[in-house]
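Table 4 source record.
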Amino acid sequence: MTAPKLRLPVETARLLIRELAEDDLDALYAWRRHPAYRRHLPMPRQTREAVEAELGAILGDQTDYRRLRFLLGVIERKTGRLIGEAILKLAPALRHRQAEIGWAVAEDLKGKGYATEIGRALLDAAFGPLKLHRVFAMCSTENLASRRVMEKLGMREEGTLREHFRARERWWSSHLYAVLADEYRKKRR
């Protein structure tokens, strides 16, 4: 089975979700270096060099027709500004037709519904053109805003992964949410 093709860009009322480009480095680094960016993420402090290296790897992956991981740029259509990222990771065993989604929004734009708009666009793509069966998302147990977004998207909590990985000198626990294709379609009607 070949990897399904994600059609890009994805447009919503306020956003354009597209492949990241080399020119995005400054904007990506500008909001990723904000301490709030990693508050609920188990990653080290974002240096310019680290963001540049990750962007280089992402750009290299964009030409792989077997690609299963998409880290995409989210552009505010009104301003043309890169304001966040959208993440779609297809399950390696494609026959299971599953994916994980995620999102991040620049600190100065949180609370405006952008994360929900990103999540909805990813679910529309997952259950539309990609023909997936199940999509899940995870967030740290302290991340109440992401939990609310997942619930708005119609995802249901499936459980808590207690202290399932270690980063930044502590154990991290995550809530796991998921939605099935038929559940999502019923909610969108």
